[in-house]
Design brief:
By secondary structure, the protein is of the alpha+beta class. The chain contains six helices and eleven strands. It has a single domain, classed as 3-Layer(aba) Sandwich (Protein Transport Mog1p, Chain A), CATH 3.40.1000. One of its GO terms (cellular component) is photosystem II oxygen evolving complex.
């Protein structure tokens, strides 16, 4: 269960004020948890064939069997992959081409000085921030009207062997392995169908675009940006996830896509 506190978004280019942590009311993650797809470790590839698969293979392993734990406070590798998959758990604009001028008028800046990131979110969207038992920080942005569209940012601690995105392998191999780990369309009866659309590395981040669709349900479009940074004590993995449903594309695609592409580590 996560705990969220509502915050007012800031005017463009302003910074979040420093203030004591308020008492945070308990709020369900249901506004975007429908995107969460559990990783089925029974079907992971035990014999990796690429560098990307090799680094990701450890994430699929059961924690009790692999015992891949580092210092207290760091996430096990299998849990970390679950976060990458579940924190969605996106064709992008030209990677790296988004200028701040493209966001003026319809977006607001949100800057987190404690967690060292900045993102532009659609004007009028609500924001909630908090943490869970395993995730050091969760920030979610979502429209006031009822919708499955949203943008979320999760931050987790990772072990000292993960110093850069290259630790996960090249972006294309990483993205392919990540999305293949979600796909269950080959099962009988078929499960969720996951399809990789695009992947690229730019701005010190990995960008991944893909779709998810459960049998009989609407197609879900996912845009994600992944980065690593250190706070001076330990390395942290940032996963930015934007999503919208196929029938909401006209209203939310551009907003979600631009928001994810605007994310920067500061």
């Amino acid at each position: 269960m996560a705990y969220f506190s509502p915050h007012r978004l800031l005017p463009l280019t302003s910074k979040a004020p420093k203030c004591p942590k308020p008492k945070i009311p308990e709020v369900s993650l249901s506004f975007f948890s429908s995107a969460l797809i559990p990783c089925d470790t029974r079907h992971s590839n035990p014999n990796p064939t690429s560098r990307g698969e090799s680094s990701l293979h450890h994430f699929y392993m059961n924690a009790k069997a692999s015992n891949l734990a580092s210092r207290p406070g760091f996430m096990r590798r299998d849990v970390l992959l679950g976060t990458l998959l579940g924190a969605t758990s996106f064709p992008f604009l030209a990677f790296g081409s988004l200028a701040e001028s493209d966001l003026l008028g319809s977006f607001q800046a949100y800057e987190d000085e404690n967690n060292k990131f900045r993102i532009f979110v659609p004007e009028g969207w609500s924001v909630g921030a908090g943490e869970t038992n395993r995730i050091k920080s969760v920030t979610a942005f979502y429209p006031k009207e009822v919708s499955n569209s949203n943008v979320s940012i999760t931050i987790v601690g990772v072990g000292p062997d993960f110093t850069a995105l290259g630790s996960f392998g090249k972006v294309d191999a990483f993205a392919e392995t990540l999305v293949n780990g979600l796909d269950r369309s080959w099962q009988r009866p078929p499960g969720v169908a996951a399809k990789l659309i695009n992947s690229a590395a730019a701005n010190g981040l990995y960008y991944i675009e893909y779709t998810l669709q459960n049998p009989g349900e609407r197609l879900r479009h996912i845009f994600s940006a992944i980065g690593i940074a250190s706070n001076g004590w330990y390395n942290r993995l940032y996963t930015v996830t934007g999503q919208f449903m196929d029938d909401e594309e006209e209203n939310y695609k551009s907003l979600v896509e631009k928001s994810v592409l605007s994310f920067r580590l500061i």
